[in-house]
Specification:
The chain is α+β, with helices and mostly antiparallel strands. Helix content is about 40%, strand content about 30%. The chain has 4 helices and 7 strands. The radius of gyration is 23 Å and the shape is elongated.
Length: about 190
């Protein structure tokens, strides 16, 4: 009887080791996807400022409503950095779209293994996980907004409306990227 109990205890320990490695991989994947989306959000702010400055008709209004092209830029590098900080490597990465919102998916593989246990072959198994983070606009322009004139936006969580005047615009006039776009993990 004690041999059976010992075997059951060791089996639970092996499953706990695997679960711990899996949780570490999921944390690394979540962090990598969020880092990529946050990096892209910052680059989107620069793209928005450029569209306003160039007087790109109402294209800049589309940026604020979520109809934007994600930059290739540094998003992958940010995902790789966060995966590495979580003792994992980025094994897959790319742009994605969830419920109409752009984002990035990241797949990671841990640098560490599940470890030695009573289950043969686990000592060389590395955990894998993936996650997707999306960028969601936080502001809504008035329906009568004319991109040729000053446009007022109401943003989630903002105390006051944000006003953008394309005729009198400087990139420094834009609020922080986190005021215009939220980043979160897709469900």
């Amino acid at each position: 009887m004690s041999g059976i109990l010992l075997f059951v205890a060791l089996a639970f320990f092996a499953f706990a080791q695997a679960a711990s490695a899996r949780n570490g991989a999921q944390s690394a994947a979540d962090a990598a996807a969020l880092a990529a989306a946050q990096e892209a959000r910052d680059e989107l702010l620069e793209g928005l400022g450029k569209a306003i400055k160039e007087g790109d008709d109402d294209a800049w209004l589309d940026w604020l409503s979520g109809d934007m092209v994600l930059p290739d830029g540094a998003a992958r590098g940010a995902a790789e950095d966060l995966a590495a900080q979580n003792d994992s490597e980025l094994s897959g990465f790319g742009p994605d779209e969830v419920n109409g919102y752009p984002g990035y998916w990241a797949k990671v593989t841990t640098n560490y293994t599940v470890g030695d246990s009573i289950i043969p072959g686990t000592e060389s198994k590395r955990a894998k996980a993936e996650a997707t983070a999306v960028i969601k606009p936080r502001c809504d322009p008035a329906e009568s907004a004319d991109p040729e004139k000053a446009v007022e936006f109401i943003c989630d969580g903002a105390r006051e409306p944000i006003e953008i005047d394309p005729d009198d615009f400087d990139l420094g006039d834009l609020p922080d990227a986190s005021d215009l776009f939220s980043v979160h993990l897709a469900e």
